[in-house]
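Final report, section 2: Outcomes. Of the targets proposed, 3-ketosteroid-9-alpha-hydroxylase reductase subunit is the one most frequently requested by collaborating groups, and we therefore present its record in full.
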Amino acid sequence: MTGSLKARVARVIRETRDAHSLVLEPTEGQEDRFSYRPGQFLTIRVPAGDGWAARCYSLCSSPDTDDGLQVTVKRVDGGLGSNWICDHVTEGDVLEVLRPAGTFTPSSLDGDFLLVAAGSGVTPVMSILKSALVRGTGKITLLYANQDEQSVIFAEELRGLVAAHPGRLSVVHWLTSVQGLPTADTFRALAAPYTDRQAFICGPGPFMELATEALAGLGMPGDRVHTEKFFSLGGDPFAETGPEAEAEGTDGADGAQVSVEVELDGQTSTVTWSGSGHLLDALLRAGIDAPFSCREGSCSACACVVLEGEVSLDANTVLDDQDLADGLILACQAKPLSDRLKISYDG
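The predicted structure is given below as tokens.
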């Protein structure tokens, strides 16, 4: 089982001169597999020469306010996926995608939020913003950096949301063509009134580093600062995995088979795993619709929480020490260290 899905492009929206939004409709019978949480992303299969590749795009739609799923793609010089989507994808096309995934999502929509974005990094925080306005009662401030006014994605929609939620939502724009690049001092001044909030940051790497360092300098605890990273996948995660390799004995504790209890989408299943290969492959072969994307330990799409038992990770470039302490693991890189596991994808 690859876990791949089909989505029809219901509408293409030209947001700015170099950013397009795709409104997507699940194909009939697959609607439940497209459920998502605010801040998550979608993996789309794109052509690459004579083969295929995959690219991940954050959902800017909200599961609480929008009927369709929407991703916004900003053209990047030499970008394989962004240029193909902006140049070739039209209404009525059918795309191959993986189910929504990712950990850049609030555990609760109550409380106050500081949302920080630059350029197309606004897409996942837009999803969080819209859901928090509907399901939460707290105040939300968006600090949003762009090159110029014409580069501001969702400018009109943001104006409408501010007008509709006076006193709850404020948007602070930073235009580098007018104000120059933000510095640590200027960012600290902008963020200083909001250090008691949950912060979600998305944008180019240097911008996120500046923001996280500034918030740390203001005394904001690290467990209240959340960042989302853009990345390009090295392989094709849509490809079928081969049959599980036969092994002499297993990698499970004391050579025993591993019993895995899985909580996913409100349902509990039990899978028997020989212990060879990785946890994600065992789940997919058993028919479990587990989320995933890169299969490289780099994107957090397959992240789940270990409630009982223990695993090791072959690779991990995305979970930090706090994530690991909270029990988060990457199923695509997990090997068993105990004979029984209980894991949950349900938050």
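Residues 146 and 188 are 18 Å apart (CA to CA).
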